[in-house]
């Protein structure tokens, strides 16, 4: 690419008329910003007060359904155990998670967290969120979940919950996350994992490893999920006591 040197001003200036050169400047700048963000997100507090559980689930399941009441009870038990609860901040099972947290800790609203995304049709953040964050894109929102969570629980949900599950699963697979439980609740997710085993572990054309399918821990009850979190939180607390 030949770029003429301007007769005055900055010698390395790029004219907007040169779309290729301008696009390269923009590309390099964005990549540089990503590198800065990736570096900054490596920083962690040496210790913090509470273990944080993110609960993913459908926005479409309303109060009174078995899934809603189950997620609410799960969040209540985890909050009483000493966990902070994080959700997507919206309606449905997200609201159930935040409602359960607030029911267990009504005077500590900051322990009920919502991380929402701006969408044209998105409802306002639910009334049980005590500490709210908003993102303009799914990408930054998903990154936020991954950075702040000590455990993930995936309740029944749709495509959004599948996306969240898949990202956490892959980060655990490649050890960008480690010692972070990924708990999937209900028959639908168990069937998804069985489908993956059948289609990705065929002899002669393996697309994954058997160990990858041991990452999600399938449970069918609140008690099983709480037991896994309790065990992992005990290890986490021991680590928090280190100097």
UniProtKB/TrEMBL annotation:
Catalysed reactions listed for this entry: AMP + H2O = D-ribose 5-phosphate + adenine
Gene3D superfamilies tied to this protein: 3.40.50.450
Cellular compartments per GO CC: cytosol
Any one Gene Ontology molecular-function term assigned to this protein's record: AMP nucleosidase activity
InterPro entries: LOG_fam, LOG_family_nucleotidases
EC top class, as a word: hydrolase
EC number: 3.2.2.4
PANTHER family attached to this UniProt entry: CYTOKININ RIBOSIDE 5'-MONOPHOSPHATE PHOSPHORIBOHYDROLASE, LYSINE DECARBOXYLASE-LIKE PROTEIN
Protein name: AMP nucleosidase
Native organism: Roseimicrobium gellanilyticum
């Amino acid at each position: 690419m030949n770029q003429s040197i301007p007769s005055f001003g900055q010698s390395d200036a790029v004219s907007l008329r040169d779309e290729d050169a301008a696009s390269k400047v923009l590309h390099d700048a964005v990549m540089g910003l990503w590198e800065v963000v990736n570096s900054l997100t490596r920083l962690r507090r040496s210790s913090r007060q509470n273990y944080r559980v993110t609960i993913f689930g459908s926005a479409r399941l309303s109060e009174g359904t078995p899934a809603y009441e189950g997620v609410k009870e799960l969040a209540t038990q985890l909050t009483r155990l000493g966990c902070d609860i994080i959700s997507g901040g919206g309606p449905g099972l997200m609201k159930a998670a935040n409602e359960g947290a607030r029911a267990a800790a009504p005077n500590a609203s900051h322990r009920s967290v919502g991380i929402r995304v701006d969408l044209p049709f998105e409802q306002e953040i639910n009334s049980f969120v005590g500490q709210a964050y908003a993102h303009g894109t799914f990408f930054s929102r998903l990154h936020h979940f991954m950075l702040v969570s000590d455990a993930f629980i995936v309740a029944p949900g749709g495509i959004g919950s599948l996306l969240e599950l898949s990202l956490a699963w892959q980060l655990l697979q490649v050890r960008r996350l480690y010692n972070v439980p990924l708990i999937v609740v209900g028959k639908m997710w168990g069937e998804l994992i069985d489908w993956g085993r059948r289609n990705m572990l065929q002899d002669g054309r393996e697309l994954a490893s058997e160990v990858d399918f041991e990452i999600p821990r399938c449970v069918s009850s609140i008690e099983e999920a709480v037991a896994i979190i309790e065990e992992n939180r005990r290890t986490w607390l021991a680590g928090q006591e280190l100097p």
